[in-house]
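Table S2 (continued). Query chain:
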Amino acid sequence: MTTVADCGGSGWRTFDEFKQTVIDRAKTRIYAFINIVGRGMVGSQAENDVTDMEADKTAEKIEQYPDIIVGIKTAHFARKGYLPLERAVEAGRRTNTPVIVDMQVLTHQARDTKTKLLEILRPGDIHTHMNSDRQLEMVNRATREMQPWMWEARQRGIIFDVGHGAGAFIFPTAYDSMQHGFPPDTLSSDLHNTSIVKTKPAMPNVISKFMNFGMTLQEAIYRSTACPAQAINRFPEVGTLSAGKVADVAVLQLRRGVFGFNDANLRRMIGTRKIEAVLTLRAGELVFDAHGLAFPEWHTQGDYNRIP
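Corresponding output:
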């Protein structure tokens, strides 16, 4: 991929270090959601510390880096109530940026999905991990029908994101929501040091899973490029191959055969289509070439002893 969005790894206290050590050094274009927790996503002790959730400081950091920071993240809060989400929304309202939320809905936490989606989040805010069975009550477990407030939330402009990761994507909810005509607005990976090994949610694999649930290739690419760019207010700067734009190009190959995929519960799905990355240009520069497609044919080069 030519462009990624870090999803809340750093907060206002740690963003400058993240920018210096990662963003400024990478060839990949990196945007960032900034965590409402000042220290960022560094474990449960920090992420449950409500004293480090400052809307003003978060907004100030966004205003300092408006070209890089695209929104606010709140995640993993295990205590009662909605305070982190309310603080994140406050910062988002001040900076006119979206909030992306990963918040558990468990009985002892005094939270429910309907309130979160219909009363606290704003149109344009993003609910990630939509195909998890732990954090978002998308499908009624007894009837396998969509919960009615899902349609209400989509109607009022809430964006539903995959955020596959290591523990946030299971086949039953993904299949049922697709069958009921409720596809994700945006496909995304949530790629990190655990998920990259366990569920392998690189974007080609995420695209492949939804294609095997009935999404067309064209729709899957649209929901992986233009739609995410629109969600973070960066379209058409990125997310399109239009004339005059930077030459960021991901060349993908569609393979047909028999392929195995797994979800967060380590259940297997057999599919007949699979997307694979074969070549990538970033700003017109070749940065990945799986099969040497950009190189000239060997027999046209004359002197076979010459080493380039």
